[in-house]
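Lab notes, practical 5.
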Amino acid sequence: MTWIAPEVERPEGSLVAPEQELLAGYLNFYRTTLLYKCAGLTAEQLASRPSPPSNLSLLGLIRHLTKVERIWFRIHFATVDPAEPVFDLALGKDADFELIDAGRAQAEYEALIDEWALSDKAAEGHSFDEQFTFRDEISSLRMVYIHLIGEYARHCGHADFLREHLDGVTGA
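Output from the prediction step:
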């Protein structure tokens, strides 16, 4: 039996909440929107690249965003050296898109959800004004949230396009 990406419900957040709650809500909305775009697809569909010559696949987006979450929240902000590897950059900057294995789709999907929890834990109790150094520049937790919201929003657009090519499904 082949694995199928589960249905997900996207959270509804406040449109007038204080900044930290508002941005966390938007990030969670876009996080779940990516999985919403994957819902009902088989592992093979998630791994397929329906728009050649592009290397984009929904599974590649899942892998990429797992890496992005880990790098920004845990490695850069929390300065944690995770035991689990970030995709081997020696294999190229697109390794998360290139090294796709449908047999690992469920594990990769679950790894993204696990990474969300670890990201949220890394940020928990910290002010958006808290700073860290990134490439010799001072940055803030606020910037991480804004960066991740933009990253997810962009890739949710890619996911729309990929999903439509896979099975014709369009929409929110």
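Observations recorded by the TA: The longest helix spans residues 141-167. The first strand starts at residue 131 and ends at 134.
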